[in-house]
Amino acid sequence: MMITPVTSKDEIAAVAALAHEIWNQHFTPIIGEAQVSYMLDKFQSAVAITRQIADGAEYYQITCGKHAAGYFCLVPEADAGTLLISKLYVRRADRGRGLGRQALTFVQRRARELGLSKLRLTVNRHNARSIDWYRHVGFKITGTQKKDIGDGFVMDDFLMEKAVS
């Protein structure tokens, strides 16, 4: 497994394509096809990813052998002492191989490099498998959040945190 920063136009396009595959498989049963399409366009298109990187987000691609297996996005929040895991997704065919855990090890190392003491994330309240996995790796639910994202769609999430080890 290899983790590489996403910076070029081609790398951004590859992550956007990966997002399209993963989100349609994983999130359509949870939030429906219309919301998945809306969120992919608004948050995971090449244009959106490019804008997020320009605003300080760090995107990384997870590769296994020669194929893209997943990706994640980190947003340092220095004032709060936290590193937001904005996105962490692994292709269905690559789940169960320890890639998420290896990515989390990388994330913790990155938080330490930045002098941040806590990781935080949001996860859809109906995404039971992901919630279970985050709990398994040491995250705790610290609250809930309902956020209007436009076009009548709402993100209904748990807030989760973990101290950097």
- Tell how many strands the DSSP assignment holds: 7
Helicity, as a percent range? 40-55%
The largest sheet is:
7 strands, mixed
What is the helix tally? 6
Beta-strand percentage?
35-45%
Segments where pLDDT lies below 50 for 5+ residues?
none
pLDDT averaged over residues: 96
Keywords:
seven-stranded mixed sheet, alpha+beta, about 160 residues, globular, 7 strands, about 40% helix
What does the model show?
- It is a single chain.
- The chain is an alpha+beta fold.
- The chain has six helices and seven strands.
- The protein has a seven-stranded mixed beta sheet with strand order 1-2-3-4-5-7-6, sandwiched between helices.
- A hairpin with a 4-residue loop joins strand 3 and strand 4 (82-90).
- It is globular, with a radius of gyration of 15 Å.
- The two termini are 22 Å apart.
- The model has no long low-confidence stretch (mean pLDDT 96).
